Amino acid sequence: MDDFAEFYLSGKDAVFRAVLAAGGDRAGAEDAVAEAYARACARWAAVRVHPNPTAWVLRTAFNVRRSVWRRLRREVLGDLPDRAAAETVRDGALRRELAALPRRQREVVALRLIADLSVAETAELLGIAEGTVTAHLHRAVQSLRHQLAPAGLTALNPTREVA
């Protein structure tokens, strides 16, 4: 079980940042990550031999968040909770623009740029083609550049290769 503790401590912050960036409030992201790691711990014998245990946890956390959103839509009439909690990320403008992206683009940005997964790992985790990953990432980065440039924010390096 010591190897699970090491796995948890080495990856929990990156997984949390990815889930938070993919959409949701801080508390919801914390809950999803905690649930994902709890499931990983319960199935550690199988998860530890997975080709990428961190990707397994990310996928589980994303699925937990989706389930929560579906449940909220059924239970609460009207608007969903504010997903642009600017205080949860250092740059409030960037956080708001990330929250405004379509769900799949947020997920790709979170996995590729925040969790630092490869295109292949991201595609496998989301169940989409690698070309779709690069297309979503390209559109997301272009949208963020367009929205943040007028504000004088240069958080996205235009010379960084995104594929």
Automatic annotation (TrEMBL):
Q: What is this protein called?
A: RNA polymerase sigma factor 70 region 4 type 2 domain-containing protein
Q: Which InterPro entries match?
A: RNA_pol_sigma-70-like, RNA_pol_sigma-70_dom, RNA_pol_sigma70_r4_t2, RNA_pol_sigma_r2, RNA_pol_sigma_r3/r4-like, WH-like_DNA-bd_sf
Specify the species: Catellatospora bangladeshensis
Q: What does the record give under GO molecular function?
A: DNA binding; sigma factor activity
- Organism superkingdom: Bacteria
* SUPFAM superfamilies assigned: Sigma2 domain of RNA polymerase sigma factors, Sigma3 and sigma4 domains of RNA polymerase sigma factors
Instruction: Kindly give the PANTHER family that the UniProt entry links to this protein.
Output: ECF RNA POLYMERASE SIGMA FACTOR SIGM (PTHR43133:SF50), RNA POLYMERASE ECF-TYPE SIGMA FACTO (PTHR43133)
Q: Which CDD domains does the record cross-reference, listed alphabetically?
A: Sigma70_r4 (cd06171)
RNA polymerase sigma factor 70 region 4 type domain residues? 93-144
Gene3D superfamilies cross-referenced by the UniProt entry: 1.10.1740.10, Winged helix-like DNA-binding domain superfamily/Winged helix DNA-binding domain (1.10.10.10)
- Biological processes, Gene Ontology terms: DNA-templated transcription initiation
The family assignment reads:
Belongs to the sigma-70 factor family. ECF subfamily.
What are the record keywords, sorted?
A: DNA-binding, Sigma factor, Transcription, Transcription regulation
